[in-house]
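Chapter summary example.
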Amino acid sequence: MQTTTRPVGSLLRQWRERRRLSQLDLAISAEISARHLSFIETGRSNPSRDMVLRLGEHLEVPLRERNQLLLAAGYAPAYRESGLDDPDLTVAREAVRRVLTGHEPYPAVVVDRYWNLVDGNESVAVLTEGVAPSLLRAPANVLRIALHPDGMAPRIRNLGEWRADLLGRLRRQVEVTADPALAELLAELRDYPGGEQEPAPGGIFVPLRLEHRGAELSFFSTIATFGAPVEITLAELAIESFYPADPETGEHLRRLR
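The structure predicted for these 257 residues follows.
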């Protein structure tokens, strides 16, 4: 848990401005007076615990950062963070494993907030074949694996498009979370070679076009998260599942299976 010495009012104002909301907009949404909100932001009024949680919810502040708001206001954190091996997360862990296994023979990965690989099914080997072992050692970061010159990048036929999509997703995550570690990761990835390329007009998604043993595979992906989580670990997990974007890719994966 990161702590901060900044006043809670200053932090709330920063989140409001990041969300591009006026004081009146937020006050109406949170059903409080604009005057009260102004007093909170300037430090003239100390918000209650419930008020901090209410404003954090209406500002869509991530759970990790809501705890920081509470600490800044002098209250104990409201949301706990457990290891994925915690007994209380057994049901969630088993559900994730069922999703991964059931997705075979297509690749699927589970990542945390920082895009570190938490779990994956056996078919992920199709994606990581030829990747430098140093990139696969824990904590393996899937964005580094994808875009590093020693990772998947040399095998990605449409690297510019795929790179632009991944960096765009990370940029939006930085905007939502204001997390400096994610901002550092974005700066690192931008320094990798490959450039960014706008997708060709007329498509319906940006595919991952990947060379594998002499064949060109084409994938699209979906991302799943837990609904209504109140625990930080679950809130920050995402399952990305890759599907064949053409019949040839599906047949190639089934033969490998």
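To summarize the output: The longest helix spans residues 159-177.
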